[in-house]
Amino acid sequence: MKDLIRWACGIACAVILLACADEPPPQTTTRDPTPAISAANQSAATRPPAPTPTATRHPIPIGTPTLDPPRPVHSGDVLTLTYTVRRGDTLSGIAYAIGATPEELQQLNGLRDPNALQVGQQLLIRRRIVGRTPSIKLIPDSELVNGPTAAAFDAAAFIAQQGGYLSRYTEVVAGELLTGAQIVERVAEQFSVHPRILLAALEYVGGWVTQAQPAEDQLRYPLGYKRTSLEGLNAQLNWAALRLNEGYYGWRLNTRGYARLDDGAYLAIGPGVNAGTAGLQNYLAAISTLPDWPTIAESDGARAFMRAYRRLFGTPWQYDFGPLVPDDLRQPPLALPWRKGETWYFTGGPHSAWGPGTPWGALDFTSANVAGCAELPDWVTAVADGVITRSARGEVGQSLDPSGDERIGWSVLYLHIGSRNRVPVGARVKAGDPIGHPSCEGGLAQAAHLHLARKYNGEWINAQGATPFDLEGWIAVEGPREYDGALVQGDLRREACQCKRPDLNGITR
Fold it and tell me: Is residue 149 situated within a structural domain?
């Protein structure tokens, strides 16, 4: 296992130390683990609908998912995590977030004054693995990622057809009144999480998809996470998408072999599962506690989730696309995202593509005209030929695939693009064409800049690895922490820096 683990809730780096390791249990391969629901026992309203016809040129094969190798995290192992203190952190808050006590952290780190934490300070955290999740595959990877199979699914039409509370729900999000369907579609698009898995979670927890009036508690916490002030559909869906991605990419990248329960207990992800299942287990664990986990995992919980899924969509394996990212994937040529002759600055090395839990797949750049969050006059330009698939809230999505759908093939996300002169949806652009101006719009930003990330078949692609981020021969290299790292072109090296030094982080196109 890699010795660096990316973790949400502010944990930037984590080192796993394995102790008292036992032999992993035998692997279990189950193609379709949930018992089929008899059509004769279902009403017309709950009977699984016929599979939606595929509207793309890509077939959706039906087959047995590839068995993933087990990860070396077992019951009894001790995880030693390194937490980087951030502004506003307290020792008690950190302890609560990880299921520890302030006294435990104070003793482990030799802190004389627990109230004297410093921003950037490294704290050690130790947690013991107390069990493991079932070695049973629940969903294919393509049912967690907003990829090719999602292109054939109309979430808004499906929600309206079900006629439940979600079909009538509205909420103001960032000053804009949105319907329930629009919120689901927005979260699916931003996090690149399949809308079917989000809808199944809403149905599993509170019946939002089919019931006319969920219970009061389920109206406040529709995705089941109650240890938070995050109430309402949008906040809860964002939280659930983070947990799904955290488990999925942690398993895919071999950086997270465990799930954390709501009460702070840790479980090893069972051997023999796939990334999609690991993501789903990570979400289910986050709304469960250790005493009720055996029921969640073994009898009614995960399988009840799958029953909710089946009532809505049928068996998930009918949508199995197979591997979303081929082993021999190569990035197409990508240009630096500014005009020729200009010098821009590399301000952020590999970091989360969209929120904690996603791969370190994004790079940050800014021009010399930085002045806080004021929109800059310089143009961000297209890195390749393609079609603009979205252009709102600081986000510009571009499909590089002939389908023109960013869920299929290669796509690029440009984030923090200001609204002034931003390229419109549907525009066909060539490499070097203007996209818009750097700003702080969209996401979190302290100064105007461009955040650039890649996806393939909806899956976020790590900046370093088998398919490295390559911008005109400048290759991304990770650092020990998010936002550190470098771009390397032959003998030239540019270090990520929150500065504007031509000899350190300046790149002239």
Answer: yes
- Looking at the fold, whether 378 and 427 belong to one and the same domain comes out as yes
Q: Could you say which DSSP state residue 106 is in?
A: H
Quote the mean pLDDT of the chain.
Answer: 83
Is residue 388 located within the same domain as residue 490? Answer: yes
The answer to whether residues 28 and 164 belong to one domain is yes
DSSP secondary structure string for all residues of 211-238: -SS--HHHHH-TTS--SSS--SHHHHHH
Domain CATH code at residue 433: 2.70.70.10
Nearest alpha carbon to residue 389 among 151, 149, 154: 151
Cα 254 from chain centre: 15
Contact partners, residue 444, CB within 8 Å, separation at least 6: none
Segment 446-467 mean pLDDT: 96
Is 418's pLDDT higher than 50?
A: yes
In this structure, the answer to whether residues 410 and 493 fall within a common structural domain is yes
Question: What confidence tens digit (pLDDT) does each residue in 193-241 have?
Answer: 999 999 999 999 999 999 999 988 899 999 998 876 788 999 999 999 9
Same domain, 27 and 161: yes
Residue located via tokens 């984590």:
14
Q: Output the pTM of the full model.
A: 0.81
Has residue 361 been placed in a domain?
yes
Parent domain of 422: 343-508
Proportion of the chain above pLDDT 70, given as a percent: 82
**For the purposes of burial, counting CB atoms within 10 Å of the CB of 59, is it exposed (0-12), middle (13-18) or buried (19 or more)?**
exposed
Return the residue matching tokens 């089919």: 210
